[in-house]
C-alpha cells in the first residue's frame, strides 16, 4: 500500500491511499497516514479511488484519524471510494462518521462548511 | 480447491491470491470473491493472532468449492476453541465516534456478508463453514 500527499497547507490535508488496506498495507502506511491526517489538525480529504480492499484493521486506522480530527473540530472526507470498498465501509457504519463525496470539490465544500 | 496456511500474517497475501485463482477457474463473480476474501482474511487473522498459545508452526486449512449456485468455504484450525457465531460480541455501530470500538468488527462482517454460517468443534479442531450464493455476471 502507498500513501501520496496531494496537498498539505494551512487550509487542508489531502492525501491518496493506494492499494489493499489489509494487515500488510496498514502496517506499511499507518504511521505516515496518521502523521499526514490526524497530526496536522486540518480538515482532511482522503482519496480512496485506488483502494481495492479494506479489512477491519484498515477501518480502525481510518477511525483513529477521524476521532482525533473530530476532537479538534475538523471534518474528514473519503472521496471516490470504489463500490465494493464502499459497501464494507457502509456495513461498519462509517458513512455516519465520515463525509462521503464523489469529487474533491464536493469534499472540500463539505469539510470547510461551518 | 484446497489450500493450507502457516500461522503467519504474511499468509494473508497468499489467501488473497488463492481466492483470485479459485474465482477465475470457477467463474465466480468478483464481488463474491471480494466478500469471501474479506471474511476469510478476518477469520485467518483471528486464528493466527489469537488461536495458538504456543509459538510453534501450525497449519490452517481452507477448502473452497462451488456447489451449484453456492460458493462454500470451510476453514479448519487446531487452535483454541472459538465459535465466532457465539463467542464474539457485535460492535455497537450506533454509538458516537468517541465511544466507537473496533473489536468484533471482522466477525460482524462475516455474519452480515455470508448467507449461511456453521461452526463445529471436532476432535480438537475448529471447523467454520461459510456459504454465499454466487451472482452471475451478465453475458
From TrEMBL, chain A:
GO terms for molecular function: anti-sigma factor antagonist activity. PROSITE patterns: STAS. InterPro entries: Anti-sigma_ant, STAS_dom, STAS_dom_sf. Pfam families: STAS. Residues 2-111 form the STAS domain. Belongs to the anti-sigma-factor antagonist family. This is Anti-sigma factor antagonist. It comes from Cerasicoccus arenae.
UniProtKB/TrEMBL annotation, chain B:
It holds the Pfam family HATPase_c_2. Keywords: Kinase, Serine/threonine-protein kinase, Transferase. The keyword Transferase applies. CDD domains: HATPase_RsbW-like. One of its GO terms (molecular function) is protein serine/threonine kinase activity. It comes from the Bacteria. Residues 7-132 form the Histidine kinase/HSP90-like ATPase domain. This is Histidine kinase.
Amino acid at each position: 500500500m502507498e500513501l501520496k500527499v496531494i496537498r498539505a497547507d494551512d487550509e487542508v490535508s489531502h492525501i491518496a491511499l493506494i492499494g489493499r488496506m489489509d494487515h500488510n498495507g496498514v502496517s506499511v502506511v499507518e504511521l505516515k497516514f496518521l502523521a499526514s491526517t490526524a497530526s496536522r489538525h486540518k480538515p482532511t480529504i482522503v482519496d480512496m479511488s485506488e483502494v481495492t480492499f479494506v479489512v477491519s484493521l484498515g477501518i480502525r486506522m481510518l477511525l483513529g484519524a477521524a476521532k482525533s480530527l473530530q476532537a479538534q473540530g475538523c471534518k474528514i472526507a473519503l472521496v471516490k471510494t470504489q463500490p465494493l470498498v464502499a459497501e464494507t465501509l457502509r456495513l461498519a457504519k462509517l458513512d455516519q462518521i465520515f463525509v462521503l463525496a464523489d469529487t474533491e470539490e464536493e469534499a472540500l465544500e463539505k469539510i470547510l462548511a461551518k | 480447491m484446497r489450500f493450507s496456511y502457516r500461522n503467519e500474517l504474511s499468509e494473508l497475501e497468499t489467501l488473497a491470491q488463492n481466492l483470485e485463482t479459485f474465482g477465475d477457474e470457477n467463474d465466480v463473480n468478483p464481488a463474491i470473491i471480494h466478500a469471501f476474501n474479506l471474511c476469510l482474511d478476518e477469520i485467518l487473522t483471528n486464528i493466527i493472532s489469537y488461536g495458538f498459545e504456543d509459538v510453534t508452526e501450525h497449519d490452517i486449512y481452507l477448502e473452497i468449492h462451488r456447489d451449484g449456485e453456492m460458493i462454500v468455504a470451510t476453514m479448519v484450525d487446531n487452535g483454541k476453541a472459538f465459535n465466532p457465531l457465539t463467542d464474539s460480541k457485535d460492535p455497537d455501530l450506533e454509538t458516537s465516534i468517541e465511544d466507537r470500538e473496533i473489536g468484533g468488527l471482522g466477525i460482524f462482517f462475516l455474519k452480515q456478508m455470508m448467507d449461511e454460517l456453521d461452526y463445529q468443534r471436532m476432535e480438537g479442531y475448529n471447523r467454520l463453514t461459510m456459504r454465499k450464493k454466487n451472482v452471475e455476471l451478465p453475458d
